[in-house]
Amino acid sequence: MAKVNEVTAMKIDDTNSNVSDQISPKFSINVLQLLKSAQMQHGLRHGDYARYRRYCTARLRRLYKSLKFTHGRGKYTRKAISESTVTEVRFLHLVLYMAERAWSHAMEKRQLPDGPNARQRIYLIGRIRKAVKWANLFSHLCSVKGDSRTSLEAEAYASYMKGTLLFERDQNWDTALRNFKSARAVYEELGKYGDVENQVLCHERIEELEPNIRYCLHKIGQSNLQTSELLQIGEMEGPALDLFKSKLEAVMAEARSQQAASLTEFQWLGNRFPITNVKTRVAILKAQELEKDLHGPSADSLPAEKKLVTFDKVFTAYHEARSCIRSDLANAGNAENVKDDLNGLDKAASAVLGQRTIERNQLLVSIAKSKLTRRRDDKNEKVTKPEELVRLYDLLLQNTADLSDLVSSGRDRKPEEVTFAEECQLKSLAFRAERCFYLARIYSLAGKRTEAYALYCRARSLAENALQKLQTNSNSDQVMIKELKTLYDECRAYSCIEHATGIIEEEKAPENLSKKISTISLSGADKKVPFLLFLFLEYIIHVTHVHINT
Questions:
Q1: Reduced 3-state DSSP string for 436-492
Q2: How many CB atoms lie within 10 A of CB 398?
Q3: Which one of 386, 401, 434, 463 is CB 3.0 to 4.6 Å from 438, fit for a cystine?
Q4: pLDDT greater at residue 465 or residue 192
Q5: Minimum mean pLDDT among 324-328, 496-500, 534-538: which range?
Q6: Which of these, 251, 347, 266, 365, lies nearest to 308 by C-alpha position?
Q7: What's the pTM?
Q8: What pLDDT is recorded for position 280?
Q9: pLDDT (0 to 100) of residue 11
Q10: By C-alpha distance, which of 116, 125, 156 is closest to 139?
Q11: E strands of 133-280, at which residues?
């Protein structure tokens, strides 16, 4: 009888468990869409991981309070999150944001100005390990409490975190590759279904994972990636690529430090300056590598925005080199030979920096000129005014004058330096002609025909003078000659237009004046007495009235 009761009780328990499984709902979270939206709205659009970490902390605080899942008052007693604890979807959000907070904290440490030191790197890896722990818990809970899609996305998220940890630790590249490939396979499957927004997000995630996979294959030895290809991958954007970029930068820095041993001197205008400081070598080598992108065969196909970013990196590298040189100068003591070499190296680095500054400002001029005649309808972009071009040419004139003064300084100048100073003067003359032309445009738009005509004639004279001097020089810039010829023709055309327009306006002036006079009415109703005259008349009447009364 007892055995029958036990069997009956077991059947009842089984039916209750089946009923409870049928009753308990499966939670659904679009993990990728949720994280992408939070990241883009709270800092990661601009790579601000500190802001995103603060958002995750605030979000966790709100979740803890709304779920009444706080860890006690006074004494801290941590509550574990298990399968039985997850009674609503917000518990899954809690675990997910714990992983995100740890990951963003690690990436914040990765973005330190000089890179993480040994102690900070240990802490960074510890935060990524914590993120992996929470991501694994999230994947386990979603496999039990979530639907099939949520479980798949959670599994891909956990695989990505595991791969990130191994990627940062520089070990077990095959395991890291397996995790990244697993995450990619999940997103490839999920990208085939759902709405358009979800498919776009999945494809973006796959593109972000691809560089990590290729780098792992490169480290294993199954890929023959060249350095240029790695740099092209590093130009891609996305939060998942920031760790890859930092790893690539570390690899490039290591390669530069190895190449720096061969860079023993810096050549500039026939001068050779020895480089003894390793940091100075690395900085100059980095600048020279970036300059290849600006002056190499692929420079014409490079967009203007990327060129500006490259120029900023070049400036940073040369400023770092100059900082190292000046610190060496301060520690040189009384060694005159060493001081002379360092002063010469500082002058050379400053001159190259000045050249790149002029090139960057010329690029800004070309961008502004392309927008000068463009209408505002094109992508609702701001139209360039002639005043902006005048300001840019003022900067170019100042840059050219500074560079010419720098090169001309010193007692024993080589023929290369004299020739370079003359080229700077020719550039300055061409910039003056361009500035005068756009100054004339300003007066023309203001309706001042006489001033505009005089400035166009002056610009044409300056352009003609610059053309004559450039054409006599054998090593002259052909692009500048072509631009000056175009400027000369435009000055001639615009001066004729201003002359004709001024004569027409002068001929029509009496007619316009007569029209205006004909509209003036002197009759009583339309006659308007000036305000001061009206007050004066009131004063006279008042004084007369007072005089009569007395």
A1: HHHHHHHHHHCCCHHHHHHHHHHHHHHHHHHHHHHHHCCCCCHHHHHHHHHHHHHHH
A2: 14
A3: 386
A4: 465
A5: 534-538
A6: 365
A7: 0.59
A8: 86
A9: 45
A10: 156
A11: 265-268, 271-274
